[in-house]
Specification:
Layout (H helix, E strand, L loop, with lengths): L2 H10 L11 H17 L9 H6 L1 E3 L9 E3 L10 E4 L2 E4 L12 E7 L2 E9 L4 E8 L13 E5 L1 H7 L32 E8 L2 E6 L2 E7 L3 H8 L15 E5 L6 E10 L1
Antiparallel strand pairs: 1-13, 2-5, 3-4, 4-13, 5-12, 6-9, 6-13, 7-8, 7-12, 9-10, 10-11
């Protein structure tokens, strides 16, 4: 059996994502979330329901104007690399030899919040959702901001040899820090629902109604994970209690819609 076949065998039984079975309490915890998402499938996009408005939700994109976003370390929205199309906020594929628009961030910063959005990936897509991002001169956003990873999982797993660890680099995972037990993301061309909760230092990543990971920024476990990651040399990483939401331009097309946030 060659290396690629062996990798796919492991993936099929769930071993590559740290276990073949999901804890029983996770099923109970996510069932209502999944049902709620199924009920929202036919709802109009980029709009808040009356109940959402009453609960304090706020749209970060109305389907027409990206005025609540700007370029990272820039006062304006990128002139190229990003577009608004058919009610979607789209990061475009960077042409060969060209340049993209760079990462974008919300104009406002947030401390305790629940962020909800939908995304659909293109073939080979690689992107992410940043949070608690700080703007530091001549410093990339990822030096400070934790990331909810967005990836074409199947393609990258097929490309990856067993000696290259893809744990912590798949969709909904805590990039380079924590792996999900199972992959609940949908493939290229299908809409995924992402949710990020940050509340008093406790963080959760959700994908399509299932909790992928959770952690506490103030815990010793978190500090140990950072120390063992690519972020060990960046002292500001994950230290902020308030910051911007960011969407990553990694040179691949990803479409976003229904971007909304509620402060906690």
């Amino acid at each position: 059996m060659n290396m690629k076949s062996l990798l796919l065998t492991f993936l099929g039984c769930g071993l590559i994502l740290s276990g073949c079975q999901k804890p029983q309490d996770q099923h109970a915890e996510t069932s209502e979330e999944v049902v709620a998402l199924e009920q929202e499938e036919d709802a109009q996009h980029n709009q808040l329901t009356t109940s959402e408005q009453e609960a304090g939700w706020k749209l970060l994109f109305d389907g027409q104007n990206p005025d609540q976003w700007r370029g990272y370390q820039n006062e304006t929205f990128p002139e190229n690399g990003w577009d608004v199309r058919d009610g979607e906020l789209v990061v475009l594929k960077t042409p060969e030899g060209g340049s993209g628009g760079g990462d974008i961030i919300t104009r406002e910063s947030y401390e305790n919040f629940e962020l909800s959005l939908e995304f659909v990936i293109s073939d080979s897509a690689n992107s992410g959702i940043f949070y608690l991002a700080q703007e530091q001169e001549d410093t990339p956003i990822w030096h400070s901001a934790p990331e909810y990873q967005i990836l074409d999982n199947q393609l990258y797993l097929n490309w990856t040899d067993l000696d290259m660890d893809m744990h912590t680099h798949l969709t909904a995972e805590n990039y380079d820090l924590q792996a999900a037990e199972e992959d609940h993301s949908k493939p290229v061309g299908e809409w995924n629902h992402a949710k990020i909760v940050v509340n008093q230092g406790h963080v959760e990543h959700w994908i399509n109604g299932y909790k992928a990971i959770e952690y506490d920024i103030n815990s010793d476990t978190w500090k140990q994970q950072v120390a063992a990651s690519k972020f060990k040399d960046y002292p500001q990483y994950g230290q902020a209690v308030q910051g911007h939401i960011g969407l990553q331009d990694h040179g691949h097309q990803v479409r976003f819609r229904n971007i909304k946030i509620k402060t906690l």
